[in-house]
């Protein structure tokens, strides 16, 4: 994102002003004398009647660390503090060699001490704060180099502003002197650098976290929010300063409380920076963007882990840290270096491997140190000794035995945190199986699979596509797919059902052979699940069709009974009553009505037979399946002379039937389906095939096989979805059978039907 010229100029001027303030503070102390003491930074040195001091350089018969300075040259420190707000007050002009009288309280005794002023002890400051100064200088040079390499971009400029803030704030290492309170200028330079510049450092860091690697969408749409981001902390700090001034009894107390509000603001800014980094990482799926953020996380982790291992943990366990406070600045040096790599060369190293090893060996070192100290302490307490070679050897042996199992345990835990359960295929398959067992709805099976695989292996995207004819249709997807992905076929009993699409964790992080083996096993299990899901869906559709067909048949029968047979029977009832009345006085008319009644009865019987035939063909009960098929074939022959195996259904068409001589009784549903399919096939041949011969074969083993072949013009592929063929397939599939059409234009057609002999 490019920076507007006016905003770029404002950032550069602000950065230069902050550095200038820091340089002015250092120059002031090089040019003015010192009493050899300072107000120790980071400590509570402010009292209502004076300030506590800490010596930078020991002086005989002079100040001592812990002295409370209550007055200088007869003027109380409270008066000097109040004069800070009054620029009209005259200030003393001290020079090196002057002797000043300090009134101090030492061990409860008030005394006047003559203090001879000397040049500022810069060597003592460097010895105590060299690492912090070095960190600030390195950070500033890195930021300046990035700006020169990425001119015009917004993020490097904000990083330069951040580095300038921490560079100016290194005046905190110098600390305030009593002469700064008396002279006034040094105090205000100190507050400008350690308060304003220090706060700007954290605000700029938050700004950087919101725009790097990509700007937050809200900031991109509303750039004026940037001004609010910078102004709000200072406004809150100003409100705190004014409110605190009204509640403190003395100016010295007030000055001592100013840092509290700044620390609270800094805490909130640190939390906001952490939240911005996490949000930026979670909201961006781009691998390069995530890798840049991981570099910053790596730098922060190195600094935090180093502080814990070298400062906090040893201080809590051993009562003294492993490094001097003078070297604390070195612990945060990895952070600006990691930022530089993220901005300039984010693909220079394999950050995931570095981050993994940092977490593993950092945690391992901390645990080993803590375990060693605890073991030595426990054994020392047991044997009532604090320094014993045997105790140390025993503790070392225990640590040596536990080291490798502990390292493997940590490695597995960190790998699972970063890469999922790829090294434990049984756990992945077991987890997938458990999720599928709890998934009841068929339409949630495939989404459950892709979600479980993505979570278990920490993959950005997993998708399943189902084969629909010659095309693949997306069925389930989890995550945002990236350009590169690997495809695994979903196969069940040599039938391709679909594909499993898996995106790698990053474009430059290909799947290992172990990953591919695990994904192949997952694809195999997924193929079984897809097959089961498809069978379940087919079963549900078949049940729906059966219910629909049953209700349609009931509706048809009701309509026929209500509209045809019902009125006929009602009419016959009326005629019976009329005939009864006419029998005695008009027998001729009664006889005529009886004749009409007989005709209506015959018509009603025909309607009833038609309904019964629609439910189940009577020919099956009267003749059996083979004879019923023969009888149906005869009707296509207008002048049939005999019901033989060879019967011409019409001129030019010869129908032959080949069946076992003694076909055993078949289940009623199988008989009806075979008869209906055969009748429908003959009807299609007569209408469309223009065939000369048709051969029907019936065979029986574990299923009833029906083959209907003709020598007609065949069935084109686009006509194999007609109503007749679809009806035949549905009848076969309702019984768990199959109905296949083998045909090509000009070469006839063959219909192959297999109906399992399921028991009723």
Mean pLDDT across residues: 78
Summed up, the domain count is 5
Instruction: State the helix count.
Output: 22
Strand content: 5-15%
Q: Major sheet: order of its strands?
A: 14-15-16-17-19-18
CA radius of gyration is 48 Å
User: Overall 3D geometry?
Assistant: elongated
Distance between the termini: 75 Å
Q: Which segments are poorly predicted (pLDDT under 50) over 5 or more consecutive residues? A: 346-351, 638-650
What oligomeric state do these chains adopt?
Answer: single chain
* Share of residues in helices: 55-70%
Task: Give a count of the beta strands, DSSP E runs of length 2 or more.
Answer: 19
Main sheet makeup: 6 strands, mixed
Which structural class fits the helix and strand makeup? alpha+beta
Key phrases:
22 helices; about 750 residues; 19 strands
Question: Secondary-structure map with pairings?
Answer:
Layout: H1 5-31, E1 33-34, E2 37-38, E3 51-52, E4 54-55, E5 68-72, E6 75-76, H2 77-83, E7 99-106, E8 109-116, E9 118-119, H3 122-149, H4 154-168, H5 171-174, H6 178-183, H7 185-211, H8 217-221, H9 225-247, H10 251-283, H11 287-317, H12 334-344, H13 351-383, H14 389-419, H15 425-438, H16 445-457, E10 461-468, E11 471-479, E12 486-492, E13 495-502, H17 513-582, H18 587-615, H19 618-623, H20 625-634, E14 646-650, E15 653-658, H21 668-689, E16 693-700, E17 703-710, H22 723-734, E18 738-743, E19 749-756
Parallel strand pairs: 15-16
Antiparallel strand pairs: 1-9, 2-4, 3-5, 5-6, 5-7, 7-8, 10-11, 10-13, 12-13, 14-15, 16-17, 17-19, 18-19
């Amino acid at each position: 994102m490019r920076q507007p010229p006016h905003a770029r100029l404002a950032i550069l001027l602000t950065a230069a002003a902050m550095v200038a303030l820091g340089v002015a503070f250092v120059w002031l102390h090089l040019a003015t004398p010192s009493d050899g003491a300072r107000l120790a930074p980071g400590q509570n040195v402010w009292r209502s009647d004076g300030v506590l001091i800490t010596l930078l350089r020991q002086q005989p018969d002079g100040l001592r660390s812990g002295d409370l300075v209550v007055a200088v040259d007869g003027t109380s420190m409270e008066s000097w503090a109040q004069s800070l707000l009054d620029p009209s007050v005259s200030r003393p002009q001290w020079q090196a060699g002057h002797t000043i009288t300090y009134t101090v309280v030492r061990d409860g005794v008030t005394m006047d001490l003559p203090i001879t002023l000397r040049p500022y002890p810069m060597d003592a400051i460097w010895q105590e704060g060299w690492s912090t100064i070095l960190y600030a200088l390195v950070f500033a040079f890195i930021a300046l180099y990035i700006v020169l390499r990425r001119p015009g971009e917004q993020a490097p400029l904000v990083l330069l502003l951040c580095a300038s803030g921490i560079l100016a704030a290194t005046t905190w290492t110098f600390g305030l002197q009593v002469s700064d309170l008396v002279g006034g200028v040094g105090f205000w330079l100190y507050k400008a650098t350690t308060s304003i510049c220090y706060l700007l450092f954290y605000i700029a860091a938050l700004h950087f976290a919101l725009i790097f690697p990509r700007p937050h969408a809200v900031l991109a749409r509303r750039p004026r929010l940037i001004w609010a981001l910078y102004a709000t902390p200072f406004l809150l700090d100003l409100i705190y300063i004014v409110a605190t001034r009204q509640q403190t009894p003395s100016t010295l107390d007030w000055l001592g409380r100013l840092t509290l509000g700044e620390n609270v603001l800094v805490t909130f800014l640190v939390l906001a920076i952490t939240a911005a980094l996490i949000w930026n990482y979670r909201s961006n799926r781009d691998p390069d963007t995530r890798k840049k953020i991981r570099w910053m996380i790596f730098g922060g982790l190195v600094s935090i882990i180093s502080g814990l291992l070298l400062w906090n943990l040893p201080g809590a366990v051993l009562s003294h840290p492993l490094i001097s406070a003078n070297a604390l600045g070195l612990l945060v040096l990895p952070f600006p270096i990691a930022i530089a790599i993220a901005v300039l060369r984010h693909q220079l190293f394999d950050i995931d491997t570095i981050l993994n090893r940092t977490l593993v060996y950092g945690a391992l070192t901390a645990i080993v140190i803590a375990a060693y100290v605890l073991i030595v302490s426990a054994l020392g307490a047991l044997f009532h000794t604090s320094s014993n070679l045997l105790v140390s050897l025993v503790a070392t042996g225990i640590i040596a035995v536990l080291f490798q199992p502990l390292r493997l345990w940590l490695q597995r835990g960190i790998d699972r945190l970063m890469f999922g359960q790829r090294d434990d295929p049984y756990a992945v398959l077991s987890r997938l199986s458990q999720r599928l067992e709890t998934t009841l709805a068929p339409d949630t099976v495939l989404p459950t699979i892709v979600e479980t695989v993505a979570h278990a292996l920490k993959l950005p995207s997993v998708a399943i596509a189902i084969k629909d004819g010659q095309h693949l249709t997306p069925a389930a997807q989890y995550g945002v797919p990236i350009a590169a992905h690997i495809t695994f076929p979903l196969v069940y009993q040599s039938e391709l059902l679909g594909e499993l699409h898996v995106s790698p964790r990053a474009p430059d992080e290909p799947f290992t052979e172990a990953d591919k083996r695990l994904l192949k096993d997952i694809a195999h299990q997924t193929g079984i699940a897809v097959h089961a899901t498809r069978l379940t869906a087919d079963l549900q559709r078949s049940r729906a069709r059966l219910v629909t067909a049953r209700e349609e048949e009931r509706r048809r029968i009701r309509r026929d009974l209500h509209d045809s047979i019902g009125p006929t029977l009602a009419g016959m009832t009326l005629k019976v009553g009329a005939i009864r009345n006419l029998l005695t006085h008009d027998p001729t008319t009664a006889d005529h009505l009886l004749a009409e009644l007989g005709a209506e009865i015959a018509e009603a019987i025909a309607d009833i037979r038609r309904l019964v035939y629609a439910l189940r063909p009577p020919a099956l009960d009267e003749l059996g399946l083979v004879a019923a098929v023969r009888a149906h074939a005869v009707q296509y022959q207008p002048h049939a002379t005999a019901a033989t195996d060879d019967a011409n259904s019409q001129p030019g068409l010869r129908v032959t039937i080949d069946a076992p001589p003694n076909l055993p009784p078949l289940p009623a549903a199988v008989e009806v389906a075979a008869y209906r399919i055969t009748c429908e096939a003959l009807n299609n041949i007569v209408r469309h095939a223009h065939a000369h011969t048709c051969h029907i074969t019936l065979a029986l083993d574990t299923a009833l096989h029906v083959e209907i072949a003709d020598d007609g013009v065949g069935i084109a592929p686009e006509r194999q979805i007609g109503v007749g063929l679809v009806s035949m397939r549905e009848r076969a599939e309702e019984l768990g059978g199959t109905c296949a059409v083998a045909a090509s234009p000009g070469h006839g057609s063959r219909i192959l039907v297999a109906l399992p002999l399921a028991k009723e």
